[in-house]
Amino acid sequence: MSNAAAAVSPGGSLFRNRFYQTVLFSNVLLQIGIWVRNFAILMFVTDMTNDDPVAVSLISVVEFAPIFVFSFIGGTFADRWRPKRTMIWCDFLSAISVFIVLLTLIYGSWEMVYLATFVSAILSQFSQPSVMKLFKQHIAPEQLQQAMAVFQSLIAIFMVLGPSLGIFVYRQWGIEIAIAIMGVAFLLSAVVLFRIPSDFPEERTDAEKPDFRKELKEGFAYVWRSPVLKVLGGAFAAAGMAVGIVQTLGLFIVIERLGEHKDFLQFLLAVNGVAMLIGGGLVMAVAKKYRRRSCWRSGCRSARCAWSESAGRRAFRLRWRCSL
Known about the structure:
The chain is 82% helix and 0% strand. It has 324 residues and is mainly α. Helix 3 (53-78) packs antiparallel against helix 8 (227-257) and helix 4 (83-107) packs across helix 6. The relative contact order is 0.13. Keywords: Cell membrane, Membrane, Transmembrane, Transmembrane helix, Transport. InterPro entries: MFS (IPR011701), MFS_trans_sf (IPR036259).
């Protein structure tokens, strides 16, 4: 039996798994840092630029552009590097970059807040694939779906609580304390990850030595040859573009259309997080009864109906005003 197989305990409670306990606690700390970062920086930038659309949209650019560019590279390196060491170093470097930004923010230019988001977004693309690799090593296959469901539910819970947490920290203590909390959260996450069992040494012969360019090419070629992956990739690209537009415009919808203070955005995002929790629960309940393709189509149709209804109401109001 290999070391990887030996690390997986077929029986027992999932929450007694030391690896899973550690990853969940680490993820809680990361989510605290990420949501304090997202909303403290958003509120700070809007205050400094008087709600300038370009400055606000730049936050989304520095957050999501690294995901697009480095997700391919991070996934490739996740198979080459030791996952535990990779995760610890990513969180540690994120913390260092945040404290550097804090120093420059105190003594220099406020625009450095963009760098905190940019660096942590890059490093997360190397850390996340390592988490998935460790999941397969330390969690039994029959428990893997439950483990991922709880992991995703935790993220959804922070989508409900995170915006309020970030805005509260910024309004109470300002951007410097918010950035400091973000750095401490990343640093504590790195410390917690030391509880993960040691990485398994991978024995490679000279013929099996990895070639980065070759692996990257093979990955793209595999996706391109697979009709299913191409369709899924296109669907995710379209959905991601829609979410990116909505997320950027959300602040201005609150201010200009609803006439509310920008802090009201936290309640809209909390509703979004609650909807994600409900949707995740429904999927877990019906996943065994219906095909995955049917569940996917139902989700896409629900989103399309919601946006069609919103657009229809907007068009009706415009026609009504024109008729007057």
